[in-house]
Amino acid sequence: MSKCAAAVARWFMLAAGSPWSARRVGHDSISEVVRKTLLTYWNTISFQSLYARASGYLPSQSSAAPESQHLLDRWIISELQIVISGVDNALSAFDSQEAGRLIAEFIDQLSNWYVRRSRRRFWDGDTQALATLHYALETVTLLMAPMVPFITEHVWQNFVLPTRNAAPESVHLADFPLADASLIDKTLSSQVAQTRRLVELGRAARAESSVRIRQPLARALVSSQGWQSLPKELQEQITDELNVESLGDLSSQGELVDVSIKANFRSLGARYGGAVQAIAKKISSTDAKELVAKVRKDGSAEISFDGGSAELTLEDLVITETPREGWSYASHAGESLALDVTLTPALIAQGSVREAIRMIQDERKAAGLDVSDRITIRWNANDDVQKAIQTSISHICEEVLALSMEFDSAISRGDNDLGLGVVIAKV
């Protein structure tokens, strides 16, 4: 207790496992709880407060969900209603672990998808985005209050009370949230969940290829039931998250991946004993791609062999997938995504520009500038990078809030891949 706050210990005991079950407790496991949930919650509140102040936003005096037609606003409000209902039912059944799981998952969705995907809206002072985030944070504070009473009371006193005159004087005097079923959109929830799964597959494919995420690629090919019927905005989110120029259908591109399979003797032997050799022989003679696709889609597949039949799961197969040259591939649970990792000079130039934007943003942070501060930039870079930056000056200035960006050969080149050296000044 001397190294962690009481709120952390409370959340760990109530929400990070069954309170009645014995478990190992250590600083690493408690720190993980803090990082994944409580710190993320706190940082999201700080983020909302920062951009609300920067834009002069004042929340509504009503505690009701804001009305918005923006797809992401509708999605996070829908998810919140589902969480409210689930947490209410869990706490009514004295199941704090389930309540904590639901809240933790929602905080992850709020921070790592809604806020991240809406960041430009916050930069622009979009009142609908700010209102939606404020409503979500106020509501999740009420949901967490029974388990972490002091943190939520601090948030209530500093985040809610100063902006809403009619709010109860304590979070513990406020009514527990009630779910509004009319705001739940299960179709949209399913579509966003599919979008996030495809993005995770794309990130896995990126990691496999060692191509950095800021390097644009030409295209991603997708195999996932119904992905082409996703709203245009969600498809654009996939291309933006994966930093690709276009999406295409994987099934229309022929064979991009070679698949081979072998029997997992440890798994099969435990269930089928002496028949395992016959099963392994049948597996090796079966169409690998077809068998793997069926198991991933349905969860299992039945094969017949001399002496009987066997039900195979992914655990029973050792799968090797080798992408063709110029491609990187990832798949999970019946969904697949392939990235075209061939780099053209134009793509490499775009990657240099994105890397330059990141470096300038890092310089802004190091200088302690406010998110709304305007700057001027003087720069120098390697010869092969100069042209890429020169042709994208207006885009870079827009991204980093620069009023001017001038080349200066007197500036020392930086110790980085671009040789980029920059000097920024607040206006």
Based on DSSP secondary structure assignment, what is the total number of beta strands?
A: 11
Radius of gyration from CA coordinates: 26 Å
- Secondary structure class reads alpha+beta
Number of domains: 4
- Biggest sheet strand order reads 2-1-8-7
* CATH homologous superfamily title of the largest domain: Isoleucyl-tRNA Synthetase, Domain 1
Total of DSSP H or I helical runs spanning 4+ residues: 15
CATH class of the largest domain: Mainly Alpha
Distance between the termini: 47 Å
Q: Say what the CATH topology of the largest domain is.
A: Isoleucyl-tRNA Synthetase, Domain 1
Tell me about the biggest sheet?
4 strands, mixed
The H/E string reads HHHHHHHHEHEEHHHEEEEEHEHHEE
What are the key terms here?
alpha+beta, Isoleucyl-tRNA Synthetase, Domain 1, Signal recognition particle alu RNA binding heterodimer, srp9/1, 4 domains, 4-stranded mixed beta sheet, 3-stranded mixed beta sheet, 15 helices, 52% helix, globular
